[in-house]
Amino acid sequence: MSEGSRIGEWARRLKRDTLMVWLAARDPRVPWYVKGLALCVAGYALSPIDLIPDFIPVLGLLDDLILIPLGIWLVVRLIPAPLALELRQRAAERLARQRPVSVWGAVAIALIWAAAIGVAGWAIWG
Predict the structure, then answer these.
(1) What are the extents of the domains in the chain?
(2) Which intervals hold domain DUF1232 (predicted)?
């Protein structure tokens, strides 16, 4: 297997597991604390806006390469294995039909950026 195909397979699994985590956040069989974590991870992963923009060298890709997979891994570990398998199958079926996007995740990230800019402005001019 070539390096490019391994990376492509990893990316497909990451997309599927991101959607799986989003589905877990909405599933009544998942404990409330796992739902909360799953909602945060999926909202951030599916948001079109990054907390650290990708154009910032090294740090911009850090969230995509480390933080998101780590969050997904943690949520998956907290979900019972049979339920995780069921949610993975549902996620794979959904991905075959459409690409998910989190509008609320984008709103949350935009609010964080706005707050950071406001605090920076206050610190500089206040």
Answers:
(1) 3-125
(2) 35-70
